[in-house]
Design a protein that fits this description.
35% helix; alpha+beta; 10 helices; CBS domain Like
Length: 271
Amino acid sequence: MSDSESEQTPEGLEVRTYFVRGRNALVARAEFGELYVDYYLHLSQFKYRHDPAHDLMLKDALAAVTLHCASRPWNESTAWTFHFSDPLLNLFVTGDNSRGSVVGQLFTEKVKEDGKNLLMSDIVRGDPRRGYQPARRSVVELPEADVFRAVERYYDQSEQRPARLFRHSEEDLVMVTAHPDCDMPWFESLTDESIRTMDKAEELSLLEKRFYRWECGCNEQRMMAVLAPSFRNNPEDLFGSDAALRMSCPRCGAWYSITREAMEAYVAASS
């Protein structure tokens, strides 16, 4: 491959969307190995260790939000928070189509035990030049602690159209969404096995390729922007007698050490 061809090749995970002719359905598919490698490198960098079952749930949530984003408009970003009561944990995942970024993390500490399973969705459309529309929030109660079934329930209630998620293989995942006049008996009969032969059994038309990468965009400056209001109000409450504090990014869990001296300089510069 020439240098010019290499420069034109987008970086990141490739997601392909197809239209199923005669069925009126959209298929989004990707092999998530590359994204999972970046996720594990992130965990290693910040010394996180997750329970294997919880880890699988977060990987499924990352895959689901990526496939969802690839099926949505280019100027849309999505954030999903899954709250499960058994196991008691929260999963947060978000995807931004304009940046081609996906990120997430899981929480097992200080999670409120209320006996409910919920999926909270926040969707924003717009761009920096034209501005952003108000976020659209929806909350869906779930019958079980299953990520794929949670997303399917969300589609039924909030998107008001059916969607189904399948495993073509361990890291090769597929989402099928119904469009108007979808062949619903066919849609409802789909299984992991039939998904593996869909390219032979159905006429698929490639619609689009999109690329996503593990990226949060957090940095020390953004963390200080979050802390600035509290620091201006009462720096002693924030730092006490300490010269620095540790803060984790709420989106990806990256850790930052923020010194009092750096906060003073930041607040002075932004006043």
